[in-house]
Amino acid sequence: MTCIAVLALLLVLTSMESETRELTSSELDALNNFIETTVACNSIPGLSVALVRNDMTVLARGYGFDDIEGNRKSTADSAFCIGSLTKAFTSTVIADVLSRHGRVTWDTPIYDILGATFRLSDDLLTRETTLRDLLAHKVGTPSYFHALLVGFDANMTRADLVKKLQYMPAVAPFRTQFHYSNFMYMLAGHVIETLAGETWEDLVTKRLLSKLGMRSTGFVDASDGIENVSTPYVLKNGTLVPVDKRLLLTVSPSGPAGSIYSTANDMTKWMIFHLNKGRTKHEYTPIVHPDWLETTYESQMTHPFEAKDLTRPLYPVSDASVSYNMGWVSSLYRGYRKLWHSGGIVTFSSQLWLYPDMRSGVFVASNGPLTSKGSTAIRNIAYFASDLLLGEEPWLNTSTTCSFPAPWKELQHQSLAIEIPRYKWNITRKMADYTGVYGHKGFGHIEIVVLDRNSLILRYGRFGKMKIFPQDEQVFYGYYVDELWFLTNADGRTDYMDIRFELTDGKVTALKLHIDLDSDQPNMTVFLKGGEYDSKALSKRNGINTSYSCCSGKNEHTKSSLFIYICIFAIILISRT
Ligand SMILES: *[C@@H]1O[C@H](CO)[C@@H](O)[C@H](O)[C@H]1NC(C)=O
Ligand SMILES: *[C@@H]1O[C@H](CO)[C@@H](O)[C@H](O)[C@H]1NC(C)=O
Ligand SMILES: *[C@@H]1O[C@H](CO)[C@@H](O)[C@H](O)[C@H]1NC(C)=O
Ligand SMILES: *[C@@H]1O[C@H](CO)[C@@H](O)[C@H](O)[C@H]1NC(C)=O
Ligand SMILES: *[C@@H]1O[C@H](CO)[C@@H](O)[C@H](O)[C@H]1NC(C)=O
Ligand SMILES: *[C@@H]1O[C@H](CO)[C@@H](O)[C@H](O)[C@H]1NC(C)=O
Ligand SMILES: *[C@@H]1O[C@H](CO)[C@@H](O)[C@H](O)[C@H]1NC(C)=O
To answer: In order of start, what are the domains of the chain with their CATH numbers?
Structure first.
């Protein structure tokens, strides 16, 4: 018996041994050289890279700086925010809770768990939405990303935000279209908290991080979080400028969609755990039941990412997305099955790519600089590393990683940060006509005030502050100032926000702006002056004109560049290659 066991073990060891192909030293040199070149030519402040293969760490390293002013170099233990890579932690911990629960499944209506007070924007969604719908972005509610960017009140709980979801209308019929929603991941976190009787943070810590030994991984909105992570940077007129770390708190209370930070060393454990279908490298007994985990890797929604696919004949290789799963996307890269996600929060950007059939994985994360070129660079590093792990000839080199997407496709010109124009009040209506508080039942309050040097300021959420310039009585252009300045005036994102005021009988009665920045929906969201706009009840009674077709040429331009930003926090890509 013992003898057979030893023999079996030996067989396992030898077969693993023969499969293990760590990179040769010349491959590692080529990889290091590729990464260093990519970091330099794309103005990446700091970078964290981890590669695994057959349960082994092939590489875990830092490049550049965690903090430029403090001269702190990035290492394999530097903490970077991983944004939406958090979503796989949420789906994994839910798989664990469900596997032990026995009664609730992926397809149990969450109404049955949350009870009769729970509401989404219509009765069908309220009654039928399941965890599978939330985790696969099938509900039809768009991202409403602007509300997340500016941040909810510090004291808002997940339960509070869940109550507001009923005022965030869906834009597509249930289960018909992919609409990426961080708020639905927040809701999934709330559901599992209700079911398990513990916070999502405690569940992730106890059931995943502790068991996997991920000791330097945490939540950016928990105590110490802000101090522990590296400094986020943005490019302004070619120079890396730090941005306020407190902006990372805008993720709260939507933590289950994006609050985790981690290190290269810790992420090797996370990748090996998934490549082993729920086991650590040392233990045979799975930490999470493999069958439940497997469902999170399976196709749940048709693939929505054509825009970022690489395909022949334009590119020499193909990387074609197939489906969204639960916290994971499936693609075929050069014919290999790839499970991946990208992440972005404030100016942090990350990619995690797993090749389950090759037992290989890559993690890359940076603390900036929030340009489409910088985000493409993170992917280029993942491509080059993937090719080495897969034993394929790399299709990128130190020259094309800097020119990308050239020579295959023309590089889009990136605008530099501009001087915000001098403030000018060139309309006859008085500033005081606009000042006041404008409300929306789902998205909170916007305040219009007169501030320094007599300009009109729009305040929204925890950090939003825009200087708004009149074009005529109704149309204003907004530039973010203070903490969020880089949203409208950093390199590659020099676009104002469109703001409209509604006049009824000569009086200002409402304000409109785009809360949903990413979808193709032209509608702006209405905030009612001195009240709270309720899309269900109030629109008709107050005679507010909610139909607004925005898309003159200039507005299109504004939207598409904001699209790029939202996708950073989200999954998707960043350069629309
Ligand atoms: C939350 O904080 C805001 C101010 O930031 C305050 O107006 C509000 O009353 C607080 N709400 C609760 C429930 O404490
Ligand atoms: C964050 O930093 C504090 C203080 O340095 C440390 O005690 C804590 O362990 C760190 N947290 C993580 C998750 O690394
Ligand atoms: C890099 O790749 C491009 C395109 O495949 C090729 O034209 C170029 O010669 C290569 N450069 C180097 C230095 O290998
Ligand atoms: C950008 O930097 C250049 C010099 O590097 C300077 O001449 C120019 O004024 C700067 N532009 C802005 C808008 O700061
Ligand atoms: C006011 O000035 C802006 C430029 O800041 C200009 O685009 C707009 O047409 C002007 N409006 C009027 C009514 O003069
Ligand atoms: C956009 O506004 C129009 C007109 O009010 C309305 O019919 C339509 O349903 C709205 N679309 C969405 C997605 O809210
Ligand atoms: C509402 O606004 C749209 C677009 O600006 C306009 O075409 C329409 O006539 C307006 N409807 C009413 C009732 O004012």
So the answer is: 22-85+220-299+332-403 (3.40.710.10), 92-196 (no CATH), 431-571 (no CATH)
